[in-house]
Specification:
Elements (H helix, E strand, L loop, with lengths): L6 E5 L5 H14 L3 H5 L5 H8 L4 E8 L2 E12 L6 E10 L8 H15 L2 E6 L6 H10 L18
């Protein structure tokens, strides 16, 4: 019997569009939102452009060619001081591979990138009721109570 392939974490680059599409499908499944993550897939050229940006970090946890989990984070330059923050926008692990340290490994990998790039913090949001995510983030960081607002974008008449 063959043993499973060891897990590795890979930062996606423009040549990894296929893996990014697998990650997007995983996000759609994990967040029970296939419409957002799969209804209007962007072109390869669009994804290549995003993956070429240094301030966009897309990481996947792989076992062979299988995407077990991943995250997308954004590097934000700050104005109040010469420093950066990293915001984890999406983080998910395939349901069959949860509780195996994959999310923690992804965050730790991002922390290494953030340290190399002079960041002072990595932050992430969690939804009320998402107890596993909240427990993970409390294990790794300091909890802050904040409010989040979505402000729609509409044409402004001037």
């Amino acid at each position: 019997m063959m043993s499973p392939a060891p897990m590795m974490i890979l930062r996606l680059r423009p040549t990894h569009v296929g893996l990014f599409r697998k990650l997007n499908a995983l996000f759609g499944d994990a967040f029970a939102d296939p419409e957002t993550y799969g209804a209007e897939p962007p072109s390869d050229a669009y994804l290549e452009g995003i993956l070429a940006k240094e301030h966009v970090i897309a990481l996947v946890a792989l076992a062979g060619e299988e995407v077990l989990g991943g995250l997308v984070a954004y590097e934000l330059d700050k104005f109040e001081r010469a420093r950066r923050e990293f915001y984890i926008y999406d983080l998910a692990v395939r349901e069959t591979h949860r509780r195996q340290g994959i999310a923690t490994a992804l965050i730790q990998h991002l922390r290494g990138i953030a340290a190399e790039r002079g960041a002072w913090v990595v932050y992430v949001q969690a939804d009320h009721g998402d107890d596993p995510a909240i427990a993970l983030y409390e294990k790794l960081g300091i909890r802050e109570e904040v409010l989040h607002f979505d402000i729609g974008v509409e044409p402004v008449v001037r």
